[in-house]
Amino acid sequence: MGFLLAEDTENAEKNFNMKHRCPICKAETESEVHKDFPFCSERCRMQDLGNWASEKYVVSDPVFDEEEATEGERKTILLDLDKLDDHEF
User: Fold this and answer.
1) Which of 16, 35, 43, 68 lies at a 20 to 30 A Cα distance from 87?
2) Domains in the chain and their CATH numbers?
């Protein structure tokens, strides 16, 4: 088992460059170049924040009803994959 030295950790952080596309305008971004990473600019970062604030983005509803989960009852759904068409679930 090896150990990481503090200088190795610092070097790894310096060499770690992430590339991504801006979620708003799809421009290429790099973590070392863009201070607003993963966004390309403050404008896109603020647009994304506004989308969350205006509820344009939402976290999906729970798959299971919360009351069912607290009761301890489990429901299992079995799918016969051999009988399903490509678009049926």
Assistant:
1) 68
2) 10-59 (3.30.50.10)
